[in-house]
Amino acid sequence: MSAISAPDFQFVAGLVRQRSAIDLQPGKEYLVESRLAPVAREVGERDLHALVGRLRRGDETLAAAVIDALTTNETSWFRDGHPFQAFSRRLLPEVAETSTTRQITVWSAACSSGQEAYSLAMLLLDWLPMHPGFSARIIGTDISATMVERARSGRYSQLEINRGLPAANLVKFFEQHGREWVLKPHVRAMTRFERGNLAAPAYGVPTADIVFLRNVLIYFDIATKRTVLSHVRRVLRPGGFLVLGGAESTLSLDAAFRRMELDKAVVFQHQGGPA
Ligand SMILES: C[S@@+](CC[C@H](N)C(=O)[O-])C[C@H]1O[C@@H](n2cnc3c(N)ncnc32)[C@H](O)[C@@H]1O
Prior knowledge:
The protein is α/β, with parallel strands linked by helices.
């Protein structure tokens, strides 16, 4: 694998920042090299310098593939457990009580290949029969077109299924198609997946009662984290809940959120006020 020169790294970091807000600081050269080497091979370029040359000449298709390759899409079912328990036991009762529409809307922001959104759909499908008159929908968004396509397909390998999906959920919510597992139509019907950049206002995402924004703020600098949270605030209704990753917080970033500990989960409630 070829090493990336300092000017080429700066160019790629600038492009990635402009398109996705992901902050690639010096020191991340190894990441760029290891993620872009396969892209170079795929498009028939001999090394990274040639690949970056093509980016400099404005190859838009290649730019999209490069952004895609530089996102980290690590995810799993019911990731970290506690936030999902809090969702069913604490957040759903609270938002149901204050809902004026009786339609629960959840936004899985930075949804990767969909495991988070579908985990929430499974919990909602267990909750809805006990709450007649309510309906629910989940909107998943991600900057990676490849991830959005994968989430829409609702198809997973055995290896992916093994990462956190309880056996009872596999039996209840999936069908086996050859070597893959596919979510049943009623689970998929509850979800919608769109491409979206969190650094830009979330057009097309309806007002949400609950937002899962997990394990993505870590990739942004402080100014971008603030911008992203302000965009989330415009979508999340006052009184609604924001759920972040274990290493993330709104503290010192956005005063409109109140930190709350619910059992073993930490959530952030939107206090209202100007967006
Ligand atoms: C580590 S995954 C987290 C997936 C899931 N939320 C979870 O916690 O398991 C981070 C995701 O954020 C997405 N992402 C990165 N920058 C983004 C941006 N500016 N707008 C939207 N999504 C972004 C990546 O494509 C990736 O799928």
